[in-house]
Amino acid sequence: TTTVSPDITVSPQIDTSFKVGLDEEGVGQELGKRLDPLSAGIKALKDQLAQLAPKQPLPGSEDPLKIKAVEFFNAGVDAYKKDEIGQAIGHWLDALKLAPAYAHAHNNLGRALKEKGALGAAIEHCNAALRIEPDSRSVHYILGLALAAKGEHDAAIEHLGKAMGIEPDDADDHFDLSRVLAEKEDAAPAVAALARAIQLDPRYRDKAKTDKHYDPIRDDPAFRKLVDAE
Predict the structure, then answer these.
(1) Residues linked to residue 9 through DSSP beta bridges, in sequence order
(2) So what's the pLDDT on residue 60?
(3) Which phi and psi angles does 126 have, rounded to 5°?
(4) What integer pLDDT is reported at residue 204 of this predicted model?
(5) Using CA atoms, how far apart are residues 29 and 15, in angstroms rounded to an integer?
(6) How far apart are CA 77 and CA 20, in angstroms?
(7) Which one in 114, 128, 216, 221 has a CA-CA gap of 20 to 30 Å to 210?
C-alpha cells in the first residue's frame, strides 16, 4: 500500500502484464505510463488535503468547552478524509458553536462548503477566518475559488493574488489565477500565470488543453504556443 497520510492508504491497482519483447528502457517507459494515473490520483488527494487544516492537539486548558471544540474539529477532519463531507461540516459547525473564533474550523468549512456548492456560506466562513488570521494562504486560496465560482472574478483575482504573495511557488495558485483571468478574457496575464504554473508543475500543460475555463482565450496565439509546446 502507498501511505498518503496517517489516516489514509491507497492500494495501487497496477496491471503488470507488460508486452513481451520490451527492453529495459521500454519496460521502464511502460511502467511509467501505468503508474501515471496512480500518481495523479495521489497528488490530487494530497492537493485536496493541503488546503485542509489538520487535526489539532487537545488544549492544555481545563476549559471543557475548548477541549470539546477541538474534539469536534478533529472528528470533522476524520470524516472529511473518509469523504463524509456532510458529516465533517456538521462537526465543524458544532466546534464553532463552542468556539466561534476557531479559525481552523472556519477554514475547513470554507473548503467543504465550496465543494458542496454552498458558495455564499463558504465565502462567509472564509471571511470570518481572515478576520482572525489575515495572512492565511489557504483561506485566501479557498476564498478566491469560491468567488470565482460565483462569477466575482475581480475579487477572486485579488485573493488568489494574495495567496500567491504568501506562497509564491505554489503551482495551484498560479494555475487557478490563470483560469480566472482566462474567463475574463485577459489573455496576456492568463498566459503568464499559466506559464509559471507549468514551470512549477508540467502536468498543468495537459490540464489546460481541455480545461473549459480557457475557452475564451483558446485561439490566442500565445496560449496555443504554450499549451502545444513539448
Answers:
(1) 3
(2) 80
(3) -65, -45
(4) 97
(5) 14
(6) 46
(7) 114
> What is the grid cell recorded at 120?
455564499
* Coil, helix or strand at residue 49: helix
On the 0-12 / 13-18 / 19+ scale of CB atoms within 10 A, 189 is: middle
Q: How far apart are CA 173 and CA 175, in angstroms?
A: 6
DSSP 31: H
DSSP 8-state class, residue 82: T
Comparing 4-8, 43-47, 71-75, the range with the smallest average pLDDT is 4-8
Beta bridge partners of 8: 5
Residue (of 185, 140, 139) closest to 161 by Cα position: 140
The pLDDT tens digits for 158-214 are 999 999 999 999 999 999 999 999 999 999 999 999 999 999 999 999 999 999 999
Cell readout for 149 is 465560482
Please provide the DSSP assignment of 41-108 as one string: HHHHHHHHHHTS----PPPSS--HHHHHHHHHHHHHHHHHHTT-HHHHHHHHHHHHHH-TT-HHHHHH
Q: Residue 2: beta bridge partners?
A: 10
Q: What is the pLDDT of residue 212?
A: 96
Q: What is the pTM of this model?
A: 0.75
